[in-house]
Amino acid sequence: MQLGEKAGLRPAKPMRDIFGDALLELCRQNPKIVVLDGDLSNTTKTLAVRHEFPERFFNIGLAESNMVSIGAGLADCGLIPFITSMSSFLLCNAYDQLRLNIAISGVNAKVVGSHGGITLGKDGPTAMAIEDLALVGGLPTFAIVVPCDPTSMHKAVQAITEYPGPVYLRSSRVAMPYVYTEDDCPFEIGVANLVRQGTDLTIIGCGIMVPAALDAAAMLAQEGIQARVLDMHTLRPMDTEAITAAARETGAIVTAEEHLLHGGMGSNIARIVAAAHPVPMRFVGLADTYTDSGDPQDLLIKYGLTAEDIGQAAREAFAAKR
Length: 322
What we know:
By secondary structure, the chain is of the alpha/beta class. The protein folds into two domains: 15-170, 3-Layer(aba) Sandwich (Rossmann fold); 193-320, 3-Layer(aba) Sandwich (Rossmann fold), CATH 3.40.50.920. 40% of the residues lie in helices and 18% in strands. The chain has 13 helices and twelve strands. The chain has helices spanning 15-29, 41-44, 47-52, 64-76, 87-93, 95-103, 132-137, 150-162, 209-221, 240-250, 265-276, 296-302, 307-320, and strands at 33-37, 57-59, 80-86, 110-114, 143-145, 167-170, 193-196, 201-205, 227-231, 234-236, 253-260, 281-286. Strands 2-1-3-4-6-5-10 form a seven-stranded mixed β-sheet, with helices on both faces. Strands 7-9-8-11-12 form a five-stranded mixed β-sheet, sandwiched between helices. The model has no long low-confidence stretch (mean pLDDT 96).
């Protein structure tokens, strides 16, 4: 069963390819955009920018700390740098520079972490970013954006370019099905999207877990449980109003993320729910463990990140509110 099949979603090409297309399109429109690369342009899909705009493309090599510092300097000169590499390399190797040169300074730099989560598969745990959202969450001035499909990735790249200040955009190697159409994809930083109506409980997802949540909602509907689904594409600033409304109107919440539960999206949503309108909650994500190398779908199954896992968590949350 393909991701999104139960929900009737169209398949797509890998999100990193979508990011590369969107970035090239923006470079053609905005001469202030420059791209910094950690010698991974074929992996992050910024290679087309290198070919078409070599004067605006800087390959810094395998030196992420230097790349972040150079990007911060370019931002301070009025340019809009896209600092690109694999998420695990950027966040783990250059955290000090992200904190000092971008977060504390508040410069207008865009940090793009490719290959987020475990779905890069056979590259293994050393390359998997399962803690990136928690790490960026520790940098208070950063907006955090996690698109869930090709259309929202296009909209996200445009939105973060216009956003004044530091942004972390999480990209992915894996293909994600279309949740949105070109004509129906609202994307405002800090505003969650309602992608399915429901009154019995709410499933809140980000990234690949949004189409998985829609699959789960389709399965739950066959059991008479109507699940609302929210695409929480922005983890900071987080849509407190949508979360509070979901708690108040549906009485139970499940969160789903391709990330460690500790310090991820779900823990932040729980904080909001606890303060505003406590309801039963369940959390789908990675336990405190590093993962194996393997086929992406096999990894999602092994570590409990499937529509079936979301569905079971939803049944438990729904039962707990009764």
